[in-house]
Each structure stands twice: as structure tokens, then as C-alpha cells.
Amino acid sequence: MGTVWRAHDEMLRVDVAVKEIRFPAELDAAERAGQVDAAMREARTAARLRGNPHVVTVHDAVEQDGLPWIVMDYVPADTLGATVEHAGPLPVPRTAEIGLAVLDALVAGRELGVLHRDVKPSNILLAHDGRVLLTDFGIATHVSDPTLTGGGGSGGTPAYMAPERLVGGAATLLGDLFSLGATLYLAVEGVAPFQRESIPLTIGAVVHGQPPAFTRAGALAPAIAGLLAKNPAGRLGADGAQARMRGAA
């Protein structure tokens, strides 16, 4: 959806990150307007979470020549996905620390009525100073948003989406927690639990399949397994997940 540039704020004399939103050339005027709205929603959503240590701070959002730009903290970091791809699975304690940080951001968002809806390894930053940050609120929304229901147009990444969302159910905090579970599985085991050769096969694996047996998760396995419960009614909630991850950290 966009490119993030490192820039320098000449007034404040600090480096910042500027997200340039790019649109496909084939979009018509109405579709472009919708994309602009989505970008501004991302900025507003993240701005509501200012002060949370696990969310990238948004400073400003502007529209220039019909294109939106979002100004954020510049955070030297690698994504969780890139880290696992290049260095392999993470140790259990580090994975648990990452899980606790992302969980804190998700709970803080839910307390403000905000759901992320696209938790995945590429949206988690491992800052070079040790911080863990949840980013990319481009499809996050308020709980009152009418787009919360329906799997087809609600956004997200199939390999990490909760099964109830893939069959048209509502987005909830429990759905974000399923996505966190799939993300932590990749972090500690080194593979995405439901990724298959095609989107239909991936969706089928999320809805009906089970992840491969744990080989590295150790003390973190009960937390991840609880988060990956297919039925949200039986899924591990935020408090239970926090307790189990603390035990593994």
C-alpha cells in the first residue's frame, strides 16, 4: 500500500519516518478516495494510541496532490518476519516477550474501541534498541465500524486471520489474538502454521486444519495452542494469554 521513507524534520531537527501511500494506476476516482480515507483512518487510529510503548507514534497526516502521507517516529528496526527469515526461529523467552508486547498494544487498542485486524510478522517491528512495536493500522477500525463483519472485504492476511473472520464472522479482540498466536508460532517454530501453496488451500488450513506439532515452543506451547483454538468461545483470552506468556518469558 505504500513506502516508508526516512526523512528529516527541519523544524524539530529530528529524523522521522514518512509513509507515502501509493495507488494502483487503474483505480478510479471513487476508489482513490476510499484509499485516502483508509490512510487517514490509519493515522487517526494510531494517534489514539499515542503513549503506548508498543505502538509506533504518529505525529501528523497530510494530503498532498491527492495523495496521503503519514509522519511517524523513525524507529531503526527489522520486522519479526524478516528476522525469522534471516536468523531462524527465536528463543522461547524472546518470543514470549514479543507476545506480551503485542498483547499489550492490542488490549490498549481494544480499551479505546480499536481492533487491529492484521496482526502478522511483517507488522511487528523489533527495534534495534530492544523495543517491540505493533505497526500498520491501515485496516484497523473502531468496533462501531460497519465493515467489522464479513470476511471478504474486511482486509487481513489469510494465513494469519482467525477462522471465524474467513467465513464471514465479526472481527473481535479474540480474532486478533488468534492472529497473534499464528505469529508467535512462526516466531518460535520458524514456519507459518497455516501457510499453503495457494490462498484457497491456506484458508482451508486455517478453518479446518491443525498446525504442525510443536518442536521448539517448550513452555510457550500452551499459550500458542490456546490462542489458536478454532472456536473463539474456547480461545485463550487476553488475561490467560498474558499469564501463560509471562510463565515462558
From TrEMBL:
Family matches, as InterPro entries: Kinase-like_dom_sf, Prot_kinase_dom, Ser/Thr_kinase_AS
Keywords: ATP-binding, Kinase, Nucleotide-binding, Serine/threonine-protein kinase, Transferase
Location of the Protein kinase domain: 1-245
Keyword Electron transport set for record: no
Organismal lineage: Bacteria, Bacillati, Actinomycetota, Actinomycetes, Frankiales
Gene Ontology molecular-function annotations: ATP binding; protein serine/threonine kinase activity
EC number: 2.7.11.1
One Pfam entry name: Pkinase
The name this protein goes by in its record: non-specific serine/threonine protein kinase
Classification via PROSITE patterns: PROTEIN_KINASE_DOM, PROTEIN_KINASE_ST
SMART domains linked to this entry: S_TKc
